[in-house]
Design a protein that fits this description.
The protein has helices at residues 6-17, 36-42, 55-61, 117-126, 140-170, 175-196, 198-201, 205-208, 211-223, 229-244, 250-260; strands at 25-26, 34-35, 45-48, 69-72, 87-93, 107-111, 130-133. It is α/β, with parallel strands linked by helices and 263 residues long. The chain folds into 2 domains: 6-138, 3-Layer(aba) Sandwich (Rossmann fold); 143-260. The longest helix is centred in the middle third of the chain and has 31 residues, at 140-170. The structure holds NADP nicotinamide-adenine-dinucleotide phosphate.
């Protein structure tokens, strides 16, 4: 394992608990620790758990030998970054790993050739992860789209909650209460979506065809001097979900579409 950051600190104990032998290589090894090149030489599978932008330069500096597999755990980086490795694979856990976070039930995107895929899938199962087959090879554009989807599903939701928090404060409500009060709504919507699908779970004025309430929402933002871009863009996406669910008649959809048109 080359680089002992947040991801490695989650993977290494899990690998060891699954019976794998792991050597950690670090840039500035302390007492009893290994340098990156020494750790790489000791291993059959060399995991580059360094920042995405450092994968290519780190891979280029390692002393590869025939038969080794180079791996990275980046969602956004094509395998070409592992350049001189004799063989390359990707193993991307779809989870934000910081602190003492478990891996059980987390999907892991695996990009690998036919020779390495079965062993990587077996490792994923041994760690309690759910293997997700990525195309092999996966183009840079496909990687970017896949990673953007993952980012939208995690930090994108946080950005929506940040906007909700701002609106909450403009209503004169205590900022400290915003997240505890709003987050259960997010959880509830997510639980319903996992049960009934996104279209089946969408609720609120757009889903109900209530143009009057939507109009008041937009006015509230404008009065508070806030940008309406995000609300409009999310409203247009909710409109598509509501139409998919058959919730709106033609007149309701047209009225909402007019209100939600980009300024
Ligand atoms: N954290 C997550 O939630 C998560 C989830 C999925 C995938 N990933 C992927 O996992 C990989 C590592 O992410 P991370 O979150 O663990 O990063 P991180 O916490 O920043 O740790 C990266 C480690 O790489 C080493 N490093 C730092 N700068 C370096 C440099 N300039 N050159 C060489 N090595 C350097 C350091 O280890 P030493 O001090 O030991 O040298 C550092 O602790 C990335 O590809 C990331 O996309 C992360």
């Amino acid at each position: 394992m080359i680089g002992y950051g947040r991801l490695a600190r989650a993977l290494v104990p899990a690998f060891r608990a699954a019976g794998e032998e792991v050597v950690v290589g670090r840039r500035s090894p302390g007492e009893g620790e290994f340098a990156m090149a020494d750790a790489a030489q000791a291993a059959d599978w060399v995991w580059l758990t360094v920042p995405d932008d450092q994968i290519a330069t780190t891979a280029a500096a390692l002393p590869w030998r025939a038969g080794q597999l180079g791996l990275h755990c980046s969602g956004a980086t094509p395998l070409a970054a592992l350049g001189p490795a004799p063989a390359a694979a990707g193993f991307h856990p779809l989870k934000l790993l910081a602190g003492d976070v478990g891996l059980a039930g987390v999907h892991v995107g695996i990009e690998a050739d036919a020779a390495h895929r079965p062993a990587l899938e077996a490792l994923a199962h041994a760690l309690g992860l759910v293997p997700l087959a990525l195309p092999s090879p996966m183009t840079a554009q496909a990687r970017a789209a896949y990673h953007a989807a993952a980012n939208l599903a995690a930090s994108g939701v946080l950005a929506v909650l940040a906007e909700a928090q701002t609106l909450w404060a403009t209503a004169g409500l205590a900022q400290a209460e915003a997240l505890p009060a709003l987050a259960p709504l997010t959880r509830g919507a997510l639980d319903t979506a996992l049960d009934r699908g996104l279209a089946g779970a969408v609720s609120g004025p757009v889903a109900r065809g209530d143009a009057g309430v939507l109009s008041r929402h937009l006015q509230a933002l404008a009065s508070a001097g806030l940008d309406t871009d995000l609300l409009l863009a999310l409203g247009r996406r909710q409109l598509l979900l509501a139409e998919e669910a058959g919730r709106l008649d033609v007149m309701q959809a047209a009225a909402l579409r007019a209100l939600l048109a980009a300024p």
